[in-house]
Amino acid sequence: MCRHLAYLGPPVPLGEVVDGPPHSLFSQSWAPRRQRHGTVNADGFGVGWYADGDPVPARYRRAGPIWGDAAYQDLARVVRSGALLAAVRDATLAGADGEAAAAPYATGPWLFSHNGAVPGWPQSLTSLTPTLPPTDLLSMEARCDAAFLWALVLHRLRAGDEEGQALADTTLEVAEAAPTARLNFLLTNGETITATAWGDTLWYRREPGRSVVVASEPYDDDPHWIEVPDRTLLAASRTDVLLTPLKEPSA
């Protein structure tokens, strides 16, 4: 299990969003308040952000806990962005992929994170491997369930699907193959945030016309946080948030 968040709004130092709040993502790496599976998210972390005029995001990822990385503290203090995605990781299974397995994953304009797990991985999803071209499988960043799920989503995005359609169809496809999978996805292109609530918590808070944050759990006690119902697709911009129920996979 993991914790993650995405932010769109006025440019701010990365640390103002990731580290600054009283129950920040930084704090959630060892003391999450609403995490249903696992307790410590110390198997890696990452943050991706967008610079003005450049649609391709930058990333900083490491294999260890976020609290032990002095270089990250400097970066978070001085780098400013109006769009970011960050995550802290609790590995489902032991592996040797290191920072390659830490979200956010990235291709083109997109940043992606998965909060959840696919029980029985990889055997439970072998039926889905034929849906991907061999080059997509061979170019996966890591050998974990999240990397494979990103490959499924990315294949749909490259085929022309809108972000919401790509996440919804991937969620239902994986849930049909692995019914107990937890599939909270988080995706941004720097202008919008798309997410799924499927098996774990998801919240959002917005200042209409100014900013929106989508997160696994609230990072402060502001009463304006709204919980997203389970089995829901979220699509957000700086001006609006749309929630759409996700149908159950076919029996």
Automatic annotation (TrEMBL):
UniProt cross-references to Pfam families, sorted A to Z: GATase_4 (PF13230)
Under which name does UniProt file this protein? Answer: Gamma-glutamyl-hercynylcysteine sulfoxide hydrolase
**TM segments?**
none
Tagged with keyword Hydrolase: yes
What keywords tag this UniProt record? Glutamine amidotransferase, Hydrolase
What species is this protein from?
Streptomyces endophyticus
| Presence of the UniProt keyword Hydrolase in the record | yes
Q: Which SUPFAM superfamilies match?
A: N-terminal nucleophile aminohydrolases (Ntn hydrolases)
Pathway given in the UniProt record: Amino-acid biosynthesis; ergothioneine biosynthesis
E.C. number(s) listed in UniProt: 3.5.1.118
Question: So what does this one do?
Answer: Catalyzes the hydrolysis of the gamma-glutamyl amide bond of hercynyl-gamma-L-glutamyl-L-cysteine sulfoxide to produce hercynylcysteine sulfoxide, a step in the biosynthesis pathway of ergothioneine.
Q: Which HAMAP family match?
A: EgtC
Reaction it catalyzes = gamma-L-glutamyl-hercynylcysteine S-oxide + H2O = S-(hercyn-2-yl)-L-cysteine S-oxide + L-glutamate
